[in-house]
Amino acid sequence: MQKLNANDIAALEQEIARAIQAGRHDEAGILWLRILDGDPDNVKALTALSQRSFRGGDLLAARALLKRLIAAGGGNDQQPWINLAVVCQGLRDEEGEAAAIRGALTIDPNDMLALLLRGNLLERQGKTHEAARAYGAAASVAPPMEQVNPDLRPALAQAYNYRDKYNQEFGTFMDRHLAPFFKDMQGEQLGRFRESVDIMFGRKRRYESQPALFHFTGLAPVTFFDRGLFPWIETVEAASDAIRDEFLSVLKDDQGFTPYLTYPADLPHNQFAQLNNSPDWSAYHLIDKGQNVAAHAARCPATMAALAHAPQPQQTKRTPTAMFSLLKPKTRIPAHTGVSNVRLVTHLPLILPAGCGFRVGNDVREWEMGKAWVFDDTIEHEAWNDSEQLRVLLIFDVWHPQLSEAERAMISAMSAGISEFGGMTGGFEL
Predict the structure, then answer these.
(1) How many CA atoms lie within 13 A of 171 on its CB side?
(2) SS3 assignment, position 97
(3) How far is the C-alpha of 99 from the C-alpha of 249, rounded, in Å?
(4) In whole angstroms, what is the distance from residue 334 CA to residue 381 CA?
(5) Cβ-contact 210, 204 below 8 angstroms
(6) What is the radius of gyration, based on Cα positions, of the chain?
(7) Which helix (H) or strand (E) holds 336?
(8) CA dist 87 to 43, 51, 55, 93, 261, Å?
(9) pTM of the predicted model over 0.70
């Protein structure tokens, strides 16, 4: 058929509107096909015909039309992706369904319906841990149930039920896992740890502002800690010049630096959208998720020797962590909070131009060369570099000084249990 111009298409659309108004839906379908014959990438025609095919039960045609719609430019909206996911589900095309859900979440990682669809697919595939995370994400962005479209309420209720059942099973597993450790530590004061685990699994309520993943009760929310609590801190500070020299050496080679944040496109990154996968905030990892980065550590022996004096937390596949953190000029790290108050974060400035600052809660400070500080990153904090030069810190984590040796040992045991259960990896990034 000869290609249609804009006037031809507009005239046909008017005919379609009259046909629909008169209830002549088959005629409207034929007219949409005429438009599509003359304009194969017509988004309105592809949308209407895909919906018509879906309502008529022709899922194969609906899938083909939706794919054409997305390729024609309709994929900039998550709705065609969601429609494609539903059609693929009906066709038992799990690969296509997963790809369509990923497409929707790449556009809006917080889309509740797409997250519910992801949870449903993963549940059907028997991927328990992944389904729980997807359903949990959907629940976290969902409005109150009374504000949800009635058609979606059963799916959201299923998400809540699945998440709660998962947490119950996870908690039961952890109780069994920790039982022998409790037995070995009879007589130790572990009440705070027990309550913290109950809070983690929703068995008890948390009544104060706390970290996102694991809250250890009884630890006072302190912004910047008294230096006297950390007898090792002066030893680290004394190595500042040697640490800076090692950093400048690796900076000169410009190898091994990675963006500080590397969230996948189809996961929520909220306030970090501008910094995700950005070189404006980057890191050179020395210890990453509990493991030395051998090539990097070998280049920085003085830094590694200084870090050895600090009581770094031991949590399987999570901590300790240590890195050089680089913040480029005119860059701000938005306000955020960490995930667990059992470990604190240490900053040692290495390159510090004027115009750099840091806020933890209501406490705003400027770094001082040669001086380290330790703060609780589960309290909202942010940083900025308003200068025209690079700002560089050595950042590493340490145990909270108020934790007993027994409590630290139990936290390490719990971390190993989380890893063994398989439900979570990572998540303790500085």
Answers:
(1) 17
(2) helix
(3) 44
(4) 8
(5) no
(6) 27
(7) strand 331-336
(8) 18, 10, 11, 9, 34
(9) yes
DSSP string over 197-219 = HHHHTTSS---S---SSB--TT-
Burial of 172 (0-12, 13-18, 19+ CB in 10 A): exposed
Please tell me what DSSP assigns to residue 392: E
Q: What is the per-residue pLDDT for 155?
A: 96
Q: Please tell me the distance from the alpha carbon of residue 235 to that of residue 243, in angstroms, as a whole number.
A: 12
Question: Rounded to whole angstroms, how far apart are CA atoms 369 and 404?
Answer: 32
Task: Tell me which amino acid residue 180 is.
Answer: P
HEC-encoded secondary structure of 106-121: HHCCCCHHHHHHHHHH
SS3 content of the chain, % helix, strand, coil (to 5): 50, 15, 35
- Rounded CA-CA distance 234/310 in Å is 11
Q: What is the C-alpha to C-alpha distance for residues 38 and 252, in angstroms, rounded to an integer?
A: 59
d(CA 396, CA 405): 20
User: Taking the CB of residue 217, how many other CB atoms lie within 10 A of it?
Assistant: 19
Q: Mean pLDDT by 10-residue block, N- to C-terminus, for the chain (430 residues)? A: 79 89 90 88 92 94 95 86 96 97 94 96 96 94 94 96 94 96 93 88 67 84 92 97 97 89 74 74 93 96 97 88 95 89 96 95 91 94 95 97 95 90 57
Place of tokens 């309105």: 44
